[in-house]
Amino acid sequence: MSLITTIYLVSTLTTLRLLAISIFLIVIFILIVCCVFWITEDDGAKNKCLSKYFSDKRIKYYKATLALSLFLFVAIPPQSNMYAMLAIKAGENIYQSEIGQKGLELLSLKLDEFVAETKSELSK
């Protein structure tokens, strides 16, 4: 998968994660409003409200929506974590390439030179 496609996917998944938590909060808000409305009504209206807002079909819909949105929120990692995974994969590819190996050898030589210079300055 190309880098551009992966970055696009990260952005899309982040938006999906935000949408999932928004839907979760909206459904919770609707349930709270319905409960408050139900509590404040008189007895005759309670039965009507209860059957209208808390029918078996709607309860199943609320449960499914809450479960799906919560699952998406938990299953999709935050954007910073996705970028970190992408950076680790890119670093691994560079490390395994020929240019990466040459870069590591050069870095090792430069570090050895620096350590030798530091030791000689400290010993003076």
Describe the protein's topology.
Blueprint: H1 3-40, H2 43-53, H3 56-75, H4 79-96, H5 98-123
Helix pairs in contact: 1-2, 1-3, 1-4, 4-5
Structure at a glance:
The chain is an all-alpha fold.
Report on the structure:
The protein is an all-alpha fold and 124 residues long. It has five helices and no strands. The chain has helices at residues 3-40, 43-53, 56-75, 79-96, 98-123. Helix 1 packs antiparallel against helix 3 (56-75), helix 1 packs antiparallel against helix 4 and helix 4 packs across helix 5. The longest helix is centred in the first third of the chain and has 38 residues, at 3-40. The chain is elongated, with a radius of gyration of 29 Å. The two termini are 55 Å apart.
**Span between N and C termini?**
55 Å
- Percentage of helical residues? over 70%
In what range is the share of β-strand residues? under 5%
Structural class comes to: mainly alpha
Estimate the global geometry from the Cα principal axes. elongated
Total of helices:
5
Most strands sheet: none
Count all strands and give the number: 0
What does the average pLDDT come to? 82
Mind telling me the C-alpha Rg?
Answer: 29 Å
